[in-house]
Amino acid sequence: MNHTRWRLAQERRVVEGYTEPPEVVAEREEIRLALVLGQLVYDRRTSLGLSQPALGERLGMTADAVDALEVGGMLPVTADLLVRLAGALDVTVDLHVVADGGNTVAFGERAA
């Protein structure tokens, strides 16, 4: 499959003056944020030497749900989920939200 054609079509639409509806832009941003969070969870889980079932037990969810979270499939990203992740992974969660997108999420070390 050649994804280059998708980019070319998108660029052509932009040149023609097409803009995506705000709800599509918001959904795309939510998906991007979920993917970033999933990578953070995977990296932290593996650095702690935890298996998916072990992290699932800490979070009160199944190993399959942890897998879905790590691949960015857990939507929406909720405050409750972020709080539970902070506790289970022993990190601080920094979420920076801006109106025009470009939201960021990061894990930090807990202060001793």
From TrEMBL:
Residues 41-96 form the HTH cro/C1-type domain. It comes from the Bacteria. InterPro entries: Cro/C1-type_HTH, Lambda_DNA-bd_dom_sf. Pfam families: HTH_3. SUPFAM superfamilies: lambda repressor-like DNA-binding domains. GO terms for molecular function: DNA binding. This is Helix-turn-helix transcriptional regulator. It comes from Streptomyces sp. SID12501. The lineage of its organism: Bacteria, Bacillati, Actinomycetota, Actinomycetes, Kitasatosporales.
